[in-house]
Each structure stands twice: as C-alpha cells, then as structure tokens.
Specification:
binds fe (ii) ion, four-stranded antiparallel beta sheet, eight-stranded antiparallel beta sheet, binds FE2/S2 (inorganic) cluster, alpha+beta, 345 residues, Naphthalene 1,2-dioxygenase Alpha Subunit, Chain A, domain 1
Length: 345
C-alpha cells in the first residue's frame, strides 16, 4: 500500500455535521468529522492515552472527547486537555496524527503521507468536465471488495476481461474484434486515446448515442489506482472515474463517479446509470474476489500477453514511486513515451 497519495475516505454526504465517522485507509484507522465551519477534519482514530478509538467518543465543537478518560483532541491532533490533571493541562506529546483533507467532486480525499512525503505536492485528482463548459449530472457509488488493491486495479486496466465478465454490456461476446491501441506516458500513469470508435450496439452506447455515431474515447490510468474514461460523441460527453482504495492488505473499496452532459435530470437515465454501473461493479467484484481465492493456493501470475502489459506497467509504476521517495538517482519512467499494443476483444 503506497503512501504519498490522496485517497478517497468517504462520500462527502456521509460525513454529517455533529457526527464522528470511522474509516480505515492503508491499514490506518481514521476518524472524520466536520468542524463548526463545516470543514472536514481527519485524525488518527486511536486515543494516544490507552488506544480507544476516538470515533467511539463525542464531538464537542471543534474537538473530540475520548470516552475513556475524557482527553480532548483538536483537529490539529493536539491533546488540549486531560481532565485527570486538572486545569485543562494536557500531557506533552500526547497528540494524535492529523491528516490533510480536501473535499472534491463529492468525495472526501485524505492525503496519506509518511516522513518522506509528509505533505501533498498537488491537490487531489479532479473529475473531468466537458470542453464546452456545459453543466453535468453526476452519480456516485461505492463498493467493498474482499481482495488486495492490486487485483482490483488490474481489473480496471485490463481490456481482455470485458466480453467475459461483462457480457452484453460493453461488447457483444460473439463478435471479437482485433484492437490496436496507442498508449502514451503520463507523469503518474498512462493514456490511450481512440477516435472514430465504432460503438457496439448495447444499451450503454445506445443511451450515449442513439444513432451509434463514432466516438472519441480517452482512457487514463493514474497512480495509485485511478481509472478515468471520457467519451465524446458530437456535443454529448460522458465520463467515468473509478478510484481504487486499499483499506487493508485484503480489503479494498471502489469509488465510482459517473458524469454526463445530456438528458440531464431525466430520472430514467439516472436510474439506468445506477443499474448498469452497479451491475458492472458487482461483476468486477466477483471476479476479483475469485482471483484472491486462487492466490491463497499459489501466488503467481502469467503477465506475458500484450493485454497484460498495463498490469506490468502498474507494478513498475509502484516501484518507480517507491524509488523516487527513497531518493534513488537517475530514475526513468517505466512506461514508454509511446507504444502500440494489440489484442482481440
Ligand atoms: S484512553 Fe483515551 S483518555 Fe484514556
Ligand atoms: Fe470490468
């Protein structure tokens, strides 16, 4: 699990004023709350006294009271008060860790750093917007997966599973087509752009373009686990972002955002998007959890095909990030500046 990145901790609306919200990111227990100004704060969810989760305590103004002995913690993580000492005195170095937080596109992002990368170099990733500035409708969904993060990321960047895991949704299984995609390097990942894409005759694409007009698609992968797709057909624009977050070694959450600039506010479209998005996520969850089962028996993979190259780059990008944090000199980006990969789906 990689430190030095922003991760989604929760949907903004789930962090309610006056409440403490417990979550876990990268094996670290975290408590989220809104201070009196409405700003979301994130603290280590573990009292520095005897380790009770602070999320089991009480929010009092801008601070949290531990339920065991009433120690009071500020949003900065500082311990303001230990009642047993009287007069509001607090023991020195009794603070808990606080995390940088930012709300973006309806999600609460928390920066998980370490001593090598204590503060974020950039704000969290943003959901794209149409070039013409047209307003968009948005939909958000989350799903937990009982697997390590890497298998979930592999799944989203894998082109070869689509006809098998999602039959009839994105492709018609019985008409396999040779694909040739040019990939380019991004500072934190890779991109492939396709123009004049002939869309399969499935309900997803019929909604996007009733006449199945040729589309332009852009698919990005960004570290540590962000899959971003945009579709353009004339003035119609749609985007999907899947953010994969490691909660622990063997549990992961997928946070899914969809946005579109057409038929906005039309109830059946929102319903359909939720139905299809939920179905796709369920299908991916099932296969990833099955993969995790197989790896209990033996942890080895054959990533030798061109369609597996993206999973190989993902692993090299992880090492690249760790090497960068460790200050290894003369590093080269592991993705070629430009390369064409071929497969049949
Ligand atoms: S455990 Fe929190 S105050 Fe004692
Ligand atoms: Fe999938």
């Amino acid at each position: 699990m990689l430190e030095g990145f922003w991760y989604i901790a929760a949907e903004c609306r789930r962090v309610r004023p006056g409440r403490l919200t417990a979550t876990t990111l990268l094996n670290q227990p975290i408590v989220l709350f809104r201070d009196r100004s409405g700003t979301v704060q994130a603290l280590e969810d573990r009292c520095s006294h005897r380790g009770v989760p602070l999320s089991s305590g009480r929010l009092d103004g801008d601070s949290i009271l531990c339920p065991y002995h009433g120690w009071r913690f500020a949003a900065s993580g500082a311990c303001l008060e230990a009642p047993v000492l009287g007069n509001g005195a607090a023991p020195k170095s009794a603070g808990v860790r606080s995390y940088p937080v930012q709300e973006q596109d309806g999600w609460v992002w928390v920066y998980m750093g370490n001593e090598r990368c204590p503060t974020p170099e950039a704000p969290p990733p943003t959901f794209p917007v149409p070039a013409d500035g047209s307003p968009i409708s948005m939909l958000r969904m989350s799903m937990s997966v009982k697997s390590r993060m890497d298998f979930a990321v592999d799944n989203f960047i894998d082109p070869a599973h689509v006809p098998f895991v999602h039959p009839g949704i994105f492709r018609q299984q019985h008409v396999p087509r040779p694909k040739e995609k040019e990939f380019t390097r991004l500072p934190q990942g890779f991109r492939t752009v396709s123009t004049n894409v002939l869309l399969p005759n499935t309900i997803v694409f019929r909604v996007l373009t009733p006449t199945l007009a040729p589309a332009k698609t852009t698919v990005d992968f960004l570290m540590p686990g962000i899959h971003l797709e945009t579709f353009e057909v004339g003035a119609r624009w749609g985007a999907i972002m899947v953010v994969v977050t490691p909660l622990s070694e063997d549990s992961t959450r997928l946070d899914f955002t969809m946005g579109w600039n057409f038929l906005r506010g039309v109830f059946p479209l929102v319903w359909l998007a939720r139905l299809i998005g939920g179905t796709v996520l369920q299908q991916d969850r099932r296969i990833v959890e099955l993969q995790e089962q197989g790896h209990r028996h033996k942890s080895a993979m054959n990533l030798s095909l061109e369609s597996d190259q993206l999973a190989v780059w993902y692993r090299r990008l992880q090492k690249y990030h760790l090497d960068k944090l460790a200050g290894v000199p003369n590093l080269t980006h592991p993705v070629p500046e430009k390369i064409t990969l071929r497969w049949i789906t």
